[in-house]
Amino acid sequence: MKVAIVGATGYGGLELIRLISQHPQLTLNSLHSLRGDNELLSTIYPLVQQTPYDLAVEPFEPVKISKEADVVFFATPAGIAKDLIPQLDLKKIQVIDLSGDLRLEKREDYEKWYQNEAASQELINQAVYGLSEWHHDKLQGAMLISNPGCYATAILLGLTPLYEKLDIPSVIIDAKSGVSGAGKALSEATHFMQTHDNLQPYKMNAHQHLPEIEQQLGWVNEAVDPLTMTTQLLPIARGLMAVMYVTTTLSTSAIKKIYQDRYATDPFIRLSGEKIPTIQQVIGSNYCDIGWHKDERTGRLTVVTVIDNLLKGAAGQAVQNLNISQGWDETLGLPIVPMFT
Question: Among the options 26, 88, 142, 150, which is catalytic?
Answer without folding.
Answer: 150
